[in-house]
Amino acid sequence: LQGEEANPTDVIINPGGVGVGIDITAGTTVSISNLQVTNAATNGIQATGIAGLTLNLTDVQADLNGADGVFASGITELAVVGGVFDNNQDDGIDLDGSGTTTVGILNATANNNDAAGSGTGYGFEISAAGAVTTTGGVSATGNSGGIRVSGAASFSDTDGNFSSNDDYGIFVADITGNVTLLRTTLEDNDAN
C-alpha cells in the first residue's frame, strides 16, 4: 500500500474515530509507505499473531489515534524507515515481540504520545524481541518515556534523541546481550 513518493499526506486513511485504521491479518511481507493513518478509535496500524510476517513501514505518518500509532504482536520482523508516530493516546510504536527476531527503526520520530495522560505512553515500546536497533537520528520527545526495550536479545542506538520525556529517555530491562549507545542524546527527562 503506497501513496505518492515522499509525501505521507497524499493518501490519508481516517476512519473517523471508529475501529482500526489498517488491520493486517495475513501475509509474509507487508509494505506500507507514504501515507497517513489518523483518528482511528484504537490503533492506526495493527498486525497481530501473523508468524512469519515482515512488516515494512516507510515514511508513514500514524498520528492522533485512540491507542497506538502502530501496534504489532507475534510477527517476525519490523522495519521502520522514516515516518512520524506522534500524538497518539498511548504509544507511537508498540511491539510485543513474542517471536520477533529483528526490529530496525531508522530516522523516525515518535513525539508527544501518551495523550491520554496514563503515564504509560511511550515513543517506542518494544518487548520480547530479538535484536533491536535504532539509527539515523530516531527521536522520541515529549512522551511519558522515550523508548522502552525489555526482554530483547540486544539493543543499540546511534544518534538518537530521547529527551524531554516525563519519566525517562531510555528504559532497558532483561536484555540478554549488549546494550550499545553511540552519540545518543538523553537530556531533561523526568520532568526536570
Short description:
The protein has 192 residues and is mostly beta strands. It is built from no helices and 15 strands.
Structural features, described:
Helix content is 0%, strand content 43%. The protein has no helices and 15 strands. It has strands spanning 12-13, 22-24, 29-33, 36-38, 45-48, 54-58, 61-63, 70-73, 77-81, 93-106, 122-135, 145-150, 154-158, 168-173, 179-182. The strands form two sheets. Strands 2, 3, 5, 6, 8, 9, 10, 11, 12, 13, 14 and 15 form a twelve-stranded parallel sheet that branches. It is globular, with a radius of gyration of 15 Å.
**Main beta sheet, described?**
12 strands, parallel
How much helical structure, as a percent, in the residues?
Answer: under 10%
Count of DSSP H/I helices: 0
**What's the helix-strand series?**
EEEEEEEEEEEEEEE
What best-fitting shape do the alpha-carbon axes yield?
A: globular
Give the low-pLDDT segments: none
What is the CA-atom radius of gyration, in angstroms? 15 Å
Q: Give me the secondary-structure category.
A: mainly beta
| Terminal-residue CA separation | 42 Å
Q: Give the amount of beta strand, in percent.
A: 35-45%
The pLDDT mean sits at: 92
Got a strand count? 15
Write the layout of secondary structure elements.
Blueprint (H helix, E strand, L loop, with lengths): L11 E2 L8 E3 L4 E5 L2 E3 L6 E4 L5 E5 L2 E3 L6 E4 L3 E5 L11 E14 L15 E14 L9 E6 L3 E5 L9 E6 L5 E4 L10
Parallel strand pairs: 1-4, 2-5, 3-6, 4-7, 5-8, 6-9, 8-10, 9-10, 10-11, 11-12, 11-13, 12-14, 13-15
